[in-house]
Amino acid sequence: MNQKEVGELRRRFQPEKSTVRRIYGCYVNNIGEIVAYLDESIGTMPPEEAEQYLGLFKKALSGTIGKNLIDIVFSTQQVADSDEHRLLSALRNSELRDETAREAFFQTVIRSMDLDSSYVILLAHNVYDVPVRGKGRDPFAEAGDTVFSFIVCCVCPLKEGKASLSFCPAENEFHSLVPSPTVCPPELGFLFPAFDDRAANIYSALFYSRKPNELHQNFLDTVFCVEPPMTAGEQKEAFQTALSESLESACSLEVVQTVYEQLTERMEQHRESKDPEPLLLTAKEVGAILQESGVEEPRVTAFCENCGRQFGDGAALSPANLVDGRHFEVKTAEATISLSAADSCLIETRIVDGRKYLLVPVGEGLEVNGMPVH
């Protein structure tokens, strides 16, 4: 899925556009026991409550593709005959009305969870009459032949309230009361099936994690039975390892600056183009940047081979996961220099009287601990 397709589905969870009829779920305590079940008609809820539920599902479709939102790909064998895909299909095909399937799913999720607090598992089924893309000012035409039926799940931690003095109108007195637990934004969730090319793809799901560096691997392994992908943090670390190990002494500040500048520039151009597809590069394309920086070909070849071992042969790399497109930081034992990525070229290296120095041009507005100085 791309960012535009995700945005299109997110809009389906606005109260005036949603076709969600019922909300299903269960409240699980911190030792994995189901305390209560949820099976409510959204049409009979107060509007504010219905909007809050829809907002939680909408939040489970937020973030950046490749970071918070990860494509889950099922094998052909899984789709043909596997318990995990059969269960997801049963939930979708029954529009969540299959109580046996719901209970089996809840127990599967509970076995996989690693949250320290109690939580709520929420499920919703939605139907989207996909309109045909139009031209001109109206991006969609009214008619469409595709109907996208899908389920969304989110797991929301509960925040326990703290005792506080509160006024009790019935007794006309103040007492120490503990408020009921409140539902927090989703920690994780998923969409099934994926909405690829604006149509259902039963070979994929879209997984959401609030923290890009915590993909809840036990959940992925238990619910989807797929090998967990690398987190954004793991990708960044693997990329840095490939650079430092392959380039060795050639891994200079100037080379790293060039790599960061080139990748940052491509990310900026991609944002300006408004291309909904995520920006991806191969190790060879990064290797070409290294060659332009003066790195010798044997070291470039070693870098590409190292990336093959780290990411897999022919893997497509997301620059947003490899470098920080906003900040550029240089750290020594004595000092840390932090600049915007666009200003990374301002840092220079120089040897003065036999000692190595980092130079940064000083413009207007010099301050020391917030105090203006000359």
The tally of strands reads 18
- On the 0 to 100 scale, the average pLDDT is 89
Number of helices: 11
Largest sheet: 8 strands, antiparallel
The N- to C-terminal Cα distance equals 53 Å
Query: N-to-C SSE series?
Result: HEEHEHHHEEEEEEEEEHHHHHHEEEEEE
Percentage of residues in strands: 25-35%
Helix content: 25-40%
Structural class: alpha+beta
Silhouette: globular
Q: Could you characterize the architecture of this molecule?
A:
With 374 residues, the chain is an alpha+beta fold. Helices cover 33% and strands 26% of the residues. The chain has helices at residues 3-10, 47-59, 76-80, 83-93, 99-112, 217-224, 232-247, 253-273, 283-292, 297-311, 319-322; strands spanning 22-28, 34-41, 69-73, 119-130, 146-159, 164-168, 173-177, 182-183, 188-192, 194-196, 199-201, 204-209, 327-331, 336-340, 348-352, 355-359, 367-368, 371-372. Strands 1, 2, 3, 4, 5, 8, 9 and 12 form an eight-stranded antiparallel beta sheet that branches. It has a two-stranded antiparallel ribbon with strand order 6-7. Strand 10 (194-196) and strand 11 (199-201) form a beta hairpin. The mean pLDDT is 89.
In short:
Helix content is about 35%, strand content about 25%. The protein is of the alpha+beta class.
Keywords summarizing the entry:
374 residues, alpha+beta, two-stranded antiparallel ribbon, globular, eight-stranded antiparallel beta sheet
